[in-house]
Amino acid sequence: MDNRPIGVFDSGIGGLTVLQEIMEQLPGEDVVYFGDTARIPYGTRSRETVIKYSFQCIRFLLSKDIKAIVIACNTASAMALEEARKVFEVPILGVIDPGANAAVSSTKNNKVGVIGTTGTINSEAYQKKIRRAHPSSEVIGISCPLFVPIVEEGWEDTDVAFITAEKYLSGLKEHTVDTLVLGCTHYPILRYTVGKVMGDGVKLINPAYETAKCTKKLLKEEGLLSEKVDGAKYEFYVSDDPEKFRRIGGNILRKEIATIQKVNIEVL
Predict the structure, then answer these.
(1) What are the catalytic residues (predicted)?
(2) Residues 48, 50: Cα–Cα separation, whole Å
(3) pLDDT one-digit tens code per residue, 150-205
Protein backbone atom coordinates (compact mmCIF):
# COMPACT_ATOMS: atom_id res chain seq x y z
CA MET A 1 0.00 0.00 0.00
CA ASP A 2 1.15 3.53 -0.80
CA ASN A 3 -0.85 6.57 0.35
CA ARG A 4 1.17 9.13 -1.59
CA PRO A 5 -0.82 11.06 -4.22
CA ILE A 6 -1.00 10.53 -7.98
CA GLY A 7 0.29 13.46 -10.04
CA VAL A 8 -1.72 14.58 -13.08
CA PHE A 9 -0.80 17.37 -15.48
CA ASP A 10 -2.20 18.96 -18.62
CA SER A 11 -1.53 22.11 -20.62
CA GLY A 12 -4.70 23.53 -19.11
CA ILE A 13 -8.21 22.51 -18.17
CA GLY A 14 -9.11 19.58 -20.45
CA GLY A 15 -7.11 17.11 -18.37
CA LEU A 16 -9.74 17.46 -15.66
CA THR A 17 -11.79 14.90 -17.62
CA VAL A 18 -9.00 12.43 -16.84
CA LEU A 19 -9.00 13.51 -13.19
CA GLN A 20 -12.78 13.06 -13.07
CA GLU A 21 -12.42 9.45 -14.23
CA ILE A 22 -9.64 8.82 -11.69
CA MET A 23 -11.87 10.26 -8.97
CA GLU A 24 -14.65 7.85 -9.95
CA GLN A 25 -12.54 4.73 -10.49
CA LEU A 26 -10.05 5.34 -7.65
CA PRO A 27 -12.02 7.20 -4.95
CA GLY A 28 -9.38 6.53 -2.31
CA GLU A 29 -6.47 8.03 -4.25
CA ASP A 30 -5.24 11.53 -3.40
CA VAL A 31 -4.35 13.55 -6.51
CA VAL A 32 -2.21 16.60 -7.22
CA TYR A 33 -3.32 18.28 -10.47
CA PHE A 34 -1.25 20.86 -12.35
CA GLY A 35 -2.67 22.85 -15.27
CA ASP A 36 -0.04 24.75 -17.26
CA THR A 37 -2.52 27.49 -18.11
CA ALA A 38 0.13 30.14 -18.78
CA ARG A 39 1.51 28.21 -21.74
CA ILE A 40 -1.59 26.65 -23.29
CA PRO A 41 -1.87 25.33 -25.97
CA TYR A 42 0.93 22.80 -26.29
CA GLY A 43 -0.36 21.72 -29.71
CA THR A 44 1.26 24.66 -31.51
CA ARG A 45 4.69 24.15 -29.89
CA SER A 46 7.74 22.32 -31.19
CA ARG A 47 8.58 18.84 -29.90
CA GLU A 48 11.57 20.25 -28.00
CA THR A 49 9.42 22.84 -26.28
CA VAL A 50 6.71 20.34 -25.35
CA ILE A 51 9.36 18.06 -23.82
CA LYS A 52 10.83 20.99 -21.87
CA TYR A 53 7.41 22.06 -20.57
CA SER A 54 6.45 18.47 -19.69
CA PHE A 55 9.67 17.91 -17.76
CA GLN A 56 9.03 21.11 -15.77
CA CYS A 57 5.51 19.89 -14.94
CA ILE A 58 6.87 16.50 -13.87
CA ARG A 59 9.53 18.10 -11.66
CA PHE A 60 6.85 20.19 -9.97
CA LEU A 61 4.70 17.13 -9.31
CA LEU A 62 7.70 15.20 -7.98
CA SER A 63 8.20 18.00 -5.45
CA LYS A 64 4.78 16.98 -4.09
CA ASP A 65 6.03 13.43 -3.36
CA ILE A 66 3.77 11.73 -5.90
CA LYS A 67 3.95 7.98 -6.60
CA ALA A 68 2.92 7.97 -10.29
CA ILE A 69 2.26 10.52 -13.03
CA VAL A 70 -0.53 10.72 -15.59
CA ILE A 71 0.12 12.98 -18.59
CA ALA A 72 -3.47 14.09 -19.22
CA CYS A 73 -2.58 15.89 -22.44
CA ASN A 74 -2.61 14.37 -25.91
CA THR A 75 0.21 16.55 -27.27
CA ALA A 76 2.50 15.90 -24.30
CA SER A 77 1.67 12.19 -24.40
CA ALA A 78 2.60 12.07 -28.10
CA MET A 79 5.80 14.09 -27.86
CA ALA A 80 7.19 13.74 -24.34
CA LEU A 81 6.04 10.46 -22.77
CA GLU A 82 8.84 8.22 -24.04
CA GLU A 83 11.52 10.81 -23.26
CA ALA A 84 10.11 11.31 -19.75
CA ARG A 85 10.20 7.59 -19.05
CA LYS A 86 13.92 7.60 -19.88
CA VAL A 87 14.66 10.41 -17.44
CA PHE A 88 12.32 9.92 -14.47
CA GLU A 89 12.06 6.76 -12.37
CA VAL A 90 8.43 7.26 -11.33
CA PRO A 91 5.79 5.31 -13.34
CA ILE A 92 4.35 7.57 -16.08
CA LEU A 93 1.22 7.03 -18.15
CA GLY A 94 -0.15 8.98 -21.13
CA VAL A 95 -3.60 9.14 -22.68
CA ILE A 96 -2.88 7.97 -26.25
CA ASP A 97 -1.98 4.30 -25.74
CA PRO A 98 -5.07 3.54 -23.60
CA GLY A 99 -7.37 5.22 -26.12
CA ALA A 100 -5.75 3.61 -29.16
CA ASN A 101 -5.78 0.14 -27.60
CA ALA A 102 -9.45 0.47 -26.69
CA ALA A 103 -10.27 1.49 -30.28
CA VAL A 104 -8.47 -1.56 -31.68
CA SER A 105 -10.40 -3.82 -29.31
CA SER A 106 -13.71 -2.16 -30.18
CA THR A 107 -13.80 -1.97 -33.98
CA LYS A 108 -15.59 -4.71 -35.90
CA ASN A 109 -15.28 -3.34 -39.45
CA ASN A 110 -11.69 -2.04 -39.04
CA LYS A 111 -12.77 1.55 -39.69
CA VAL A 112 -11.79 3.89 -36.87
CA GLY A 113 -12.28 7.63 -36.63
CA VAL A 114 -10.17 9.94 -34.48
CA ILE A 115 -11.16 13.51 -33.64
CA GLY A 116 -8.82 15.93 -31.92
CA THR A 117 -7.11 19.28 -32.09
CA THR A 118 -5.24 20.18 -35.26
CA GLY A 119 -1.92 19.45 -33.55
CA THR A 120 -2.94 15.99 -32.34
CA ILE A 121 -4.44 14.97 -35.69
CA ASN A 122 -1.44 16.26 -37.65
CA SER A 123 0.93 14.35 -35.35
CA GLU A 124 -0.94 11.14 -36.29
CA ALA A 125 -0.22 9.86 -32.78
CA TYR A 126 -3.47 7.89 -32.52
CA GLN A 127 -3.46 6.86 -36.16
CA LYS A 128 0.05 5.37 -35.93
CA LYS A 129 -0.68 3.52 -32.69
CA ILE A 130 -3.89 2.01 -34.07
CA ARG A 131 -2.29 0.98 -37.38
CA ARG A 132 0.69 -0.52 -35.57
CA ALA A 133 -1.58 -2.66 -33.42
CA HIS A 134 -3.99 -3.46 -36.27
CA PRO A 135 -2.29 -2.90 -39.68
CA SER A 136 -5.45 -3.57 -41.69
CA SER A 137 -7.37 -0.77 -39.99
CA GLU A 138 -8.52 2.27 -41.92
CA VAL A 139 -8.02 5.24 -39.60
CA ILE A 140 -9.53 8.63 -40.44
CA GLY A 141 -8.43 11.66 -38.44
CA ILE A 142 -10.50 14.86 -38.32
CA SER A 143 -9.48 18.03 -36.49
CA CYS A 144 -12.29 19.81 -34.63
CA PRO A 145 -10.73 23.05 -33.34
CA LEU A 146 -14.02 24.71 -32.34
CA PHE A 147 -14.89 21.95 -29.87
CA VAL A 148 -12.50 23.28 -27.20
CA PRO A 149 -13.96 26.81 -27.03
CA ILE A 150 -17.49 25.34 -27.14
CA VAL A 151 -16.68 23.26 -24.03
CA GLU A 152 -14.95 26.16 -22.29
CA GLU A 153 -18.01 28.36 -22.87
CA GLY A 154 -20.24 25.66 -21.38
CA TRP A 155 -22.12 25.20 -24.68
CA GLU A 156 -21.68 21.42 -24.99
CA ASP A 157 -25.42 20.66 -24.98
CA THR A 158 -26.55 23.53 -27.24
CA ASP A 159 -27.60 23.79 -30.89
CA VAL A 160 -24.25 25.45 -31.56
CA ALA A 161 -22.44 22.27 -30.47
CA PHE A 162 -24.78 20.01 -32.47
CA ILE A 163 -24.49 22.01 -35.70
CA THR A 164 -20.70 22.21 -35.34
CA ALA A 165 -20.47 18.47 -34.69
CA GLU A 166 -22.63 17.71 -37.73
CA LYS A 167 -20.28 19.77 -39.90
CA TYR A 168 -17.09 18.21 -38.55
CA LEU A 169 -18.29 14.61 -38.41
CA SER A 170 -20.04 14.27 -41.77
CA GLY A 171 -16.90 12.82 -43.38
CA LEU A 172 -16.57 10.16 -40.71
CA LYS A 173 -20.17 9.10 -41.27
CA GLU A 174 -19.47 8.74 -44.98
CA HIS A 175 -16.55 6.42 -44.17
CA THR A 176 -18.92 4.28 -42.02
CA VAL A 177 -16.55 4.14 -39.04
CA ASP A 178 -17.86 1.97 -36.22
CA THR A 179 -15.49 3.35 -33.58
CA LEU A 180 -14.61 6.96 -32.80
CA VAL A 181 -11.80 8.09 -30.50
CA LEU A 182 -12.44 11.34 -28.61
CA GLY A 183 -8.81 12.36 -29.03
CA CYS A 184 -8.76 15.57 -27.00
CA THR A 185 -9.26 15.74 -23.26
CA HIS A 186 -12.03 18.35 -23.70
CA TYR A 187 -14.07 16.12 -25.99
CA PRO A 188 -15.60 13.69 -23.46
CA ILE A 189 -17.71 16.65 -22.33
CA LEU A 190 -19.25 16.56 -25.83
CA ARG A 191 -19.85 12.82 -25.95
CA TYR A 192 -23.64 13.12 -25.80
CA THR A 193 -23.68 15.56 -28.74
CA VAL A 194 -21.10 13.57 -30.73
CA GLY A 195 -22.99 10.35 -30.06
CA LYS A 196 -26.24 11.92 -31.22
CA VAL A 197 -24.61 12.96 -34.51
CA MET A 198 -22.80 9.67 -35.13
CA GLY A 199 -25.68 7.39 -34.15
CA ASP A 200 -26.04 4.28 -32.01
CA GLY A 201 -23.92 2.12 -34.31
CA VAL A 202 -20.70 3.97 -33.47
CA LYS A 203 -18.78 3.17 -30.29
CA LEU A 204 -17.24 6.28 -28.69
CA ILE A 205 -13.84 5.72 -27.08
CA ASN A 206 -13.11 8.01 -24.14
CA PRO A 207 -9.33 7.98 -23.53
CA ALA A 208 -9.88 9.66 -20.16
CA TYR A 209 -11.87 6.66 -18.96
CA GLU A 210 -9.38 4.21 -20.46
CA THR A 211 -6.43 6.07 -18.92
CA ALA A 212 -7.99 5.96 -15.45
CA LYS A 213 -8.57 2.22 -15.91
CA CYS A 214 -4.90 1.75 -16.90
CA THR A 215 -3.82 3.87 -13.91
CA LYS A 216 -5.75 1.60 -11.56
CA LYS A 217 -4.19 -1.48 -13.17
CA LEU A 218 -0.67 0.00 -12.93
CA LEU A 219 -1.03 0.95 -9.26
CA LYS A 220 -2.33 -2.51 -8.43
CA GLU A 221 0.50 -4.26 -10.29
CA GLU A 222 3.17 -2.05 -8.69
CA GLY A 223 1.72 -2.33 -5.17
CA LEU A 224 1.02 1.41 -5.11
CA LEU A 225 -2.71 1.47 -4.36
CA SER A 226 -3.79 3.58 -1.42
CA GLU A 227 -5.15 1.78 1.60
CA LYS A 228 -8.07 4.23 1.62
CA VAL A 229 -11.25 3.24 -0.20
CA ASP A 230 -12.71 6.76 -0.31
CA GLY A 231 -12.26 10.24 1.14
CA ALA A 232 -9.48 11.24 -1.27
CA LYS A 233 -7.99 14.74 -1.20
CA TYR A 234 -7.32 16.85 -4.27
CA GLU A 235 -4.85 19.71 -4.74
CA PHE A 236 -4.98 22.05 -7.74
CA TYR A 237 -2.16 24.19 -9.13
CA VAL A 238 -1.97 26.40 -12.22
CA SER A 239 0.65 28.61 -13.86
CA ASP A 240 -1.70 31.52 -14.64
CA ASP A 241 -4.84 33.22 -13.30
CA PRO A 242 -6.81 30.63 -11.29
CA GLU A 243 -10.28 32.16 -11.83
CA LYS A 244 -10.97 30.85 -15.36
CA PHE A 245 -9.69 27.45 -14.26
CA ARG A 246 -12.00 27.56 -11.24
CA ARG A 247 -15.06 28.42 -13.36
CA ILE A 248 -14.58 25.97 -16.23
CA GLY A 249 -12.98 23.30 -14.05
CA GLY A 250 -15.94 23.35 -11.69
CA ASN A 251 -18.25 22.71 -14.65
CA ILE A 252 -16.15 19.75 -15.82
CA LEU A 253 -15.85 18.16 -12.38
CA ARG A 254 -19.43 19.06 -11.41
CA LYS A 255 -18.14 20.37 -8.10
CA GLU A 256 -16.60 23.56 -6.79
CA ILE A 257 -12.83 23.82 -6.78
CA ALA A 258 -12.31 25.66 -3.52
CA THR A 259 -8.55 26.25 -3.53
CA ILE A 260 -6.25 26.73 -6.52
CA GLN A 261 -2.64 27.83 -6.12
CA LYS A 262 -0.60 29.62 -8.77
CA VAL A 263 3.02 28.52 -9.21
CA ASN A 264 5.97 29.73 -11.25
CA ILE A 265 6.66 26.67 -13.37
CA GLU A 266 9.45 28.34 -15.38
CA VAL A 267 11.97 28.04 -12.53
CA LEU A 268 11.83 24.22 -12.47
Answers:
(1) 73, 184
(2) 6
(3) 998 889 999 999 999 999 999 999 999 999 999 999 999 999 999 999 999 999 99
Exactly one of 57, 144, 184, 214 is catalytic; name it.
184
Is 187 annotated as ligand-binding?
no
Task: Report whether 11 belongs to an annotated binding site.
Answer: yes
Residue 184 appears among annotated catalytic residues: yes
CA distance 257 to 224: 26
**Is 73 designated active site?**
yes
Q: Is 94 a known ligand-binding residue?
A: no
Which domains does the chain possess? 6-94+209-267 (3.40.50.1860), 96-207 (3.40.50.1860)
The 111-116 sheet, strands edge to edge? 138-143, 111-116, 179-182, 203-205
Q: Has residue 268 got a pLDDT over 80?
A: no
The Cα–Cα gap between 151 and 210 comes to: 21
| Alpha helices, H only, 116-180 | 118-123, 125-133, 147-152, 159-174
Residue 52 CB partners (closer than 8 Å, separation 6+): none
- pLDDT tens profile 223-244: 999 999 888 999 999 999 899 8
Q: What is the model's pLDDT at position 43? A: 82
What span, in angstroms and rounded, lies between the C-alpha atoms of 201 and 222?
38
- Measured between alpha carbons, how far apart are the two ends of the chain, in Å? 30
Q: 39, 17 in Cβ contact below 8 A?
A: no
